[in-house]
Specification:
By secondary structure, the chain is an alpha/beta fold. It is built from seven helices and eight strands, in the order αββαββαβαβαββαα. A four-stranded mixed sheet has the order 2-1-4-3. The protein has a four-stranded mixed sheet with strand order 5-6-8-7, with helices on one face. A hairpin with a 2-residue loop joins strand 7 and strand 8. The chain is elongated, with a radius of gyration of 37 Å.
Length: about 230
């Protein structure tokens, strides 16, 4: 079904009824009569595919139509994969939410926004608690203010039935800069690692300076005994 829809999206060969077309390819583009373009397509064993019908004249390509549809389908799939999926996460409050519960939900909202998701926070008024709607509005405004660093308000608190909603969208990802102290520490660690590698690769001796001195004493004793 999807392939049929894509096939009907383009005019091919004899379906192209304009007088002239612009043929585009690797070597550039050329305007020519449509009949000549059809003849070229037959000679090359390909199809004349109209890819931009609203241009003046319409733009076409000389290409195998099946191959063209495959390329278009592949391109659409790649674009879909690159699209960032944004979810809407919900945070629910009561009109008299205590501080501990508030901080817990605030932390979750920060994580949602940092992950690139939107947040829909709302206060649910049960029964006669609707009398405290001003208290719920103050709560949501505080929530928005505490999340100012992570998200921006898309809509201010608004009452819908028994719920008062607040919508927040994530801000752009922040670039976290390393402190000078951290950069210095990483440089020291890299230098120490490099020194260890050089030490392991260096040619080994028979005990370093002490070994050389010991060998010299033994050689001197040997010469003395021979004399």
């Amino acid at each position: 079904m999807k392939n049929d829809k894509m096939k009907n999206q383009y005019r091919v060969n004899e379906q192209i009824h304009v007088r002239e077309v612009r043929i585009v390819g690797e070597d550039g583009s050329e305007v020519m009569p449509t009949r000549k373009a059809l003849d070229l397509a037959r000679q090359q064993g390909v199809d004349l595919v109209e890819i931009s019908p609203n241009a003046q004249p319409p733009v076409c390509r000389l290409i195998d139509y099946s191959k063209f549809l495959y390329q278009q389908k592949k391109r659409q799939k790649e674009m879909k994969q690159k699209q960032v999926k944004v979810e809407v996460k919900e945070i629910r409050f009561g009109p008299q939410t205590d501080e501990h519960d508030y901080q817990f939900k605030l932390k979750h909202a920060q994580e949602f926004l940092l992950d690139g998701n939107k947040v829909r926070a709302y206060v649910f008024f049960r029964g006669r608690s609707i009398l405290f709607k001003e208290q719920g509005e103050v709560l949501l405004l505080r929530f928005a203010n505490d999340l100012e660093e992570y998200g921006k308000v898309e809509s201010m608190p608004a009452l819908e039935g028994k719920k008062m909603f607040l919508y927040l969208a994530p801000k752009k990802a922040r670039v976290v800069k390393k402190s000078q102290q951290k950069r210095d520490r990483e440089a020291e660690e890299a230098a120490a690692k490099s020194a260890n590698v050089e030490a392991e690769e260096a040619p080994k001796t028979d005990g370093g300076l002490f070994g050389n001195a010991k060998n010299g004493v033994e050689a001197l004793k040997k010469l003395t005994n021979e004399e």
